[in-house]
């Protein structure tokens, strides 16, 4: 209780300071009067009485000070005064303040930006009821990334037969055509959900109601309801409550809007924000043919654990339940690999894991890099503060002489550092806002992981957690770099003599300490720079080494023939006509078409049987497939090793195929495959091999080229969807308009949906590596810049302190070269020592970097190939860069040293 | 002016702050009093051993007031003079009882140790 009265008392004093003062004055006056009275009564004369009474009272000021110190508000006021003083001091040296704040803003801002991504992708809980009870079911086919996708009929079985879940919900995404009186016709990524989906998540609608158990009658009209997302409500309906009850036409089926999901709910899958939610019972109405009817609809499953059930128990039960499905898959596809598939149960409270798996390693690596950068920034600011502190020793000495305690001075120095770091932190938050959104934009430009929509929508906000992180970083850095000047003040305060300060000799202690700081900075920067060089080199290797095709100067036009009306017979002639048109566009060297292009995320594969080749069942793998037109290999730059390319005249003749070298090596060894035949699993018609091409990467850059079989696009019937590829002599995008026009004229009902270059497509698949290379390069350059600033500061200080020495040397005949070397030697010495320390650490860091790259690669590919990570060149490059930095930083101090006039220098003392 | 025992100007380094608080509470237990009167009374009852100067008294009063153990009120005295009188609160009374009891326990123990003969120690 006394705590309460103390707080109240302090607050009263803070709010009405004058009143307390006046009362105390009155009390002391009263004290004095009574003392005088008593002395008078004891026989003193009035004068003596007054004097004696005053002696008894002592110094009224001192008494008042001690009374004031009793309350906690005195400390608060004192701290506040220190803060104001710190601000004044910073305002008086704007140059220093600007550099320090900028340095801290960059350091804290970069950390906050990366952390906000980590928060969004890995830490933040879904806005649902008790997210820590949610789990998802992931199964893993050996070599593939984990997936959460199961047939509907098995979902129903799991829901009925399990004992570990309070509820098991399902969702299935679908591309839907949406139209209505209030909206323009558009295609959206909507979601079908099981009847208890929203109930299990414990969500309340923003308005209206959410889908509930009453919508579980499959195929009935009563299920024709929909719930829209909050952002869709905002963007298309302007938050108008009248949206309830209106009708939308989804895939030609009228659907009533019954509610809106709460704001901030973006579904369960990070990166998505479905605008439309419908009961899965509606699927037969909107999808023809219906996959729900035969139970084959693919759904993602999420469950809420029963109270008291552990994840391990759930995992065991699901493994048992899933056996039936795995057995069915194995027998149907005759692929024994299914035996090795496992099902896992993972917490889903922070959203489903696809994006997290893809980016976790990258983000963690970036957090360490950016932490190092912040450390370098702290060192810089500490060094600047120390230099400033050295210049303020006189001021400190005066304060000590006036009675300031050591702790008081140390406290004031610490508060200065905290003020600086707070201002830096606030600016950093602004930088982080921009930086985080830029990062999200870059991530969204990459190829979305399998099954996710393009573009990704990652909800990155500077929410409370991120702000707390920034605040913590600001306070932490303030204490970290404030420690050195505070320690300096503590040690220097008592013994400072006012006379000593003026001498130009100064203390060598600060100089040595300052050198130590610069050496530390150089070591850290070398690590960052060499890491950046390593990653950049790795990225270049990925893009160019062993591709099997030339990714530059290739334009791709994707045509969507799903709604076209061409007869197969027409199609062949039309495609050929379009190819001729495209090949004749000025700047186009060759044109072809294909069912898919490399590194697009699309794939096709099948088992084949080669005549005369006996295969062990356990070694049986699928070959990857592509359907291409003549001149495809020429256009993509894949060499034709033997045999011939496809020709248009193959049309109507027995089917032919071209295979790649990997396929030949496995099935034919060293003998020529030309003329040999094979069949696809389940078909009887054989194909004859007429050509062999070089190995080219197929799914992903991290995999070795698989055994590939190419078929002639002009043999056999296919739809009108195709990718037209053009190799150009001019920048690819410059022929885009002409190509689009040609396609529109020849195949008007198969519109061009996307135009990209092959280089862009390849890049989209290696987004994490690009991010790593880009960011580490940025951080490395920033660190080098900080080193330059720090080194410059140290050299400038050193030169200014040694002016008289330089003057004497010049007077005794030192040339400019001698003086230059004197300064440079110090700079190069610091950098070399830093390199000596940093290079061995950077070598060690190589294995860490390799690990991360391997982890990143394995999120995309089976058995990723490991490109060797070269360290020699990056280290040499970073070392040279640091030496260059030393030279640049020395430029101005050297000029200053050379310009010293001995007479002037010696007079200054 | 000194009587039996040395006269000590009491400062925080002489008399432990807690003891001074207890003595002030005891003084106010007898009757409400203003600052000067408290000091005078303490000096008088202790026969001059404790002379509390203003520099210790007023901070102690402020502390006791902040802790809610005493309450100050401005009063008009006989000579039409305004003075701040302090009085014990209920909480102060309880605190005083507790501290007095603790003090007596301590002093009895200390006295016993001091008087103990060689054999007992």
Describe, in short, the structure shown:
The complex is a heterodimer of chains A (909) and B (121). Chain A is of the alpha+beta class. Helices cover 54% and strands 14% of the residues of chain A.
Number of strands of chain A: 23
Unreliable runs of chain B, pLDDT <50, ≥5 residues? 1-13
Number of helices of chain B: 4
Largest sheet of chain A: 8 strands, mixed
Task: Show unreliable segments of chain A.
Answer: 501-506
N- to C-terminal separation of chain A? 62 Å
Structure in words:
The complex is a heterodimer of chains A (909) and B (121). By secondary structure, chain A is of the alpha+beta class. Helices cover 54% and strands 14% of the residues of chain A. In chain A, the strands form 3 sheets. In chain A, strands 14, 15, 16, 17, 18, 19, 20 and 21 form an 8-stranded mixed beta sheet that branches. A 6-stranded mixed β-barrel of chain A has the order 3-4-9-6-8-7. In chain A, strands 13-22-12-23 form a 4-stranded antiparallel beta sheet. In chain A, helix 17 (508-544) packs antiparallel against helix 23 (767-801) and helix 23 (767-801) runs parallel beside helix 26. Chain A starts with a helix and ends with a helix. In chain B, 53% of the residues lie in helices and 18% in strands. Chain B has a 3-stranded antiparallel beta sheet with strand order 2-5-4. In chain B, strands 1-3 form a two-stranded parallel sheet. In chain B, helix 1 (17-30) packs across helix 3 (54-66) and helix 1 packs across helix 4 (90-115). Chain B contains 4 helices and 5 strands. At the A-B interface, helix 1, helix 2 and helix 4 of A face helix 2, helix 3 and strand 5 of B.
């Amino acid at each position: 209780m006394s705590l309460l009265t103390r707080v109240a008392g302090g607050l009263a004093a803070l709010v009405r300071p004058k009143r307390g003062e006046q009362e105390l004055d009155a009390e002391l006056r009263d004290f004095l009067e009574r003392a005088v009275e008593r002395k008078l009564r004891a026989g003193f004369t009035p004068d003596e009485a007054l004097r004696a009474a005053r002696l008894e009272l002592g110094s009224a000021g001192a008494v008042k000070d001690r009374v004031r110190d009793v309350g906690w508000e005195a400390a608060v006021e004192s701290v506040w005064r220190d803060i104001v003083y710190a601000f004044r001091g910073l305002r008086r040296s704007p140059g220093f303040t600007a550099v320090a704040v900028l340095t801290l803003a960059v350091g804290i801002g970069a950390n906050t930006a990366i952390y906000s991504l980590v928060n969004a992708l890995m830490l933040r809980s879904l806005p649902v009821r008790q997210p820590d009870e949610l789990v998802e079911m992931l199964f893993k086919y050996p070599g593939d990334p984990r997936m959460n996708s199961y047939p509907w009929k098995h979902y129903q079985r799991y829901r009925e037969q399990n004992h570990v879940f309070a509820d098991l919900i399902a969702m299935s995404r679908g591309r839907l055509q949406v139209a209505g009186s209030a909206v323009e016709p558009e295609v959206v990524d909507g979601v079908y959900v099981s009847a208890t989906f929203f109930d299990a998540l414990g969500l309340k609608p923003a308005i209206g109601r959410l889908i509930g158990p009453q919508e579980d009658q499959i195929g009935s009209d009563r299920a024709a309801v929909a719930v829209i997302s909050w952002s869709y409500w905002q963007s298309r309906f302007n938050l108008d409550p009248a949206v309830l009850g209106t009708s939308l036409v989804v895939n030609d089926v009228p659907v009533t809007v019954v509610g809106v999901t709460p704001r901030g709910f973006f579904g369960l899958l990070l990166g998505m924000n479905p605008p439309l939610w419908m009961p899965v019972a509606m699927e037969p109405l909107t999808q023809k043919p219906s996959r729900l009817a035969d139970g084959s609809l693919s759904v993602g499953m999420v469950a809420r654990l029963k109270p008291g059930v552990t994840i391990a128990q759930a995992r065991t039960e699901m493994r048992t339940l899933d056996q039936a499905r795995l057995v069915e898959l194995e027998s149907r596809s005759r692929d024994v690999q299914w035996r090795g598939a496992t099902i896992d149960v993972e917490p889903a409270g922070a959203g489903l894991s696809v994006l997290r798996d893809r980016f976790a390693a990258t983000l963690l690596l970036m957090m360490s890099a950016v932490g190092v950068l912040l450390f370098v920034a702290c060192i810089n600011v500490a060094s600047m503060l120390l230099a400033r502190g050295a210049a303020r020793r006189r001021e400190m000495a005066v304060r000590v002489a006036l009675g300031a305690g050591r702790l008081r001075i140390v406290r004031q120095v610490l508060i200065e550092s905290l003020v600086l770091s707070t201002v830096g932190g606030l600016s950093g938050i602004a930088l982080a806002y921009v930086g985080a959104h830029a990062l999200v934009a870059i991530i969204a430009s990459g190829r979305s992981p399998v099954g996710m929509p393009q573009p990704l929508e990652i909800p990155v906000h500077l929410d409370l957690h991120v702000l707390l992180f920034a605040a913590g970083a600001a306070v932490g850095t303030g204490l970290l770099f404030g420690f050195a000047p505070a320690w300096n003040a503590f040690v220097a305060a008592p013994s400072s003599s006012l006379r000593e300060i003026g001498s130009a000799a100064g203390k060598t202690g600060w100089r040595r300490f300052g050198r130590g700081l610069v050496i530390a900075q150089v070591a850290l920067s070398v690590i960052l720079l060499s890491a950046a060089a390593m990653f950049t080199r790795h990225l270049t290797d990925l893009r160019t080494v062993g591709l099997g095709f030339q990714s530059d100067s290739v334009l791709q036009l994707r045509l969507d023939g799903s709604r076209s009306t061409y007869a197969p017979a027409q199609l062949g002639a039309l495609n050929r006509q379009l190819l001729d048109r495209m090949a004749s566009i000025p700047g186009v060297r060759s044109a072809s078409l294909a069912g898919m292009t490399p590194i697009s995320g699309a794939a096709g594969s099948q088992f084949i049987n080669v005549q005369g080749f006996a295969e062990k069942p356990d070694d049986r793998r699928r070959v990857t497939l592509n359907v291409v037109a003549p001149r495809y290999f020429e256009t993509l730059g894949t060499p034709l090793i033997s045999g011939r390319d496809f020709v248009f005249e193959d049309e109507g003749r027995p089917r032919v195929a071209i295979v790649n070298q990997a396929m030949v090596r496995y099935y034919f060894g060293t003998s020529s495959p030309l003329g040999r035949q094979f069949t696809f699993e389940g078909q009887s018609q054989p194909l004859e091999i007429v050509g062999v091409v070089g190995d080219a990467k197929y799914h992903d850059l991290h995999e070795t080229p698989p055994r590939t079989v190419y078929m002639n696009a002009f043999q056999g019937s296919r739809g009108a969807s195709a990718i037209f590829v053009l190799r150009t002599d001019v920048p690819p995008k410059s022929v885009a308009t002409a190509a689009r026009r040609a396609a529109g004229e020849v195949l008007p009902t198969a519109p061009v949906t996307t135009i990209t270059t092959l280089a862009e497509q390849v890049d989209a698949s290696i987004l994490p590596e690009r991010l790593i290379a880009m960011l580490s390069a940025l951080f490395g350059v920033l660190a080098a810049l900080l080193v330059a600033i720090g080194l410059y500061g140290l050299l400038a200080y050193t030169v200014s302190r040694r002016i008289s020495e330089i003057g004497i040397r010049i007077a005794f005949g030192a040339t400019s070269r001698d003086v230059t070397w004197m300064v440079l030697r110090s700079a190069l010495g610091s950098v070399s020592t830093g390199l000596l320390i940093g290079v061995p650490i950077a070598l060690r860091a190589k294995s860490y970097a390799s690990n991360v790259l391997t982890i990143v690669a394995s999120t995309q590919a089976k058995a990723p190939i490991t490109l060797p990570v070269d360290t020699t060149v990056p280290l040499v490059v970073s070392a040279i860069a640091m030496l260059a930095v030393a030279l640049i930083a020395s430029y101005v101090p050297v000029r200053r040293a050379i310009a010293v006039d001995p007479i002037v220098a010696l007079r200054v003392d | 002016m000194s009587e039996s025992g040395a006269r000590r100007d009491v400062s925080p380094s002489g008399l432990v702050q807690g003891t001074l608080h207890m003595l002030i509470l005891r003084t106010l237990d007898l009757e409400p009093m203003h600052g000067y009167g408290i000091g005078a009374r303490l000096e008088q009852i202790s026969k001059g051993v404790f002379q509390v100067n203003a520099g210790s008294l007023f901070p102690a009063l402020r502390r006791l007031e902040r802790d809610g153990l005493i309450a100050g009120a401005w009063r008009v005295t006989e000579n039409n003079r305004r003075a701040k009188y302090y009085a014990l609160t209920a909480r102060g009374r309880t605190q005083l009882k507790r501290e007095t009891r603790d003090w007596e326990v301590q002093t009895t123990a200390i006295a016993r140790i001091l008087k103990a003969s060689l054999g007992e120690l």
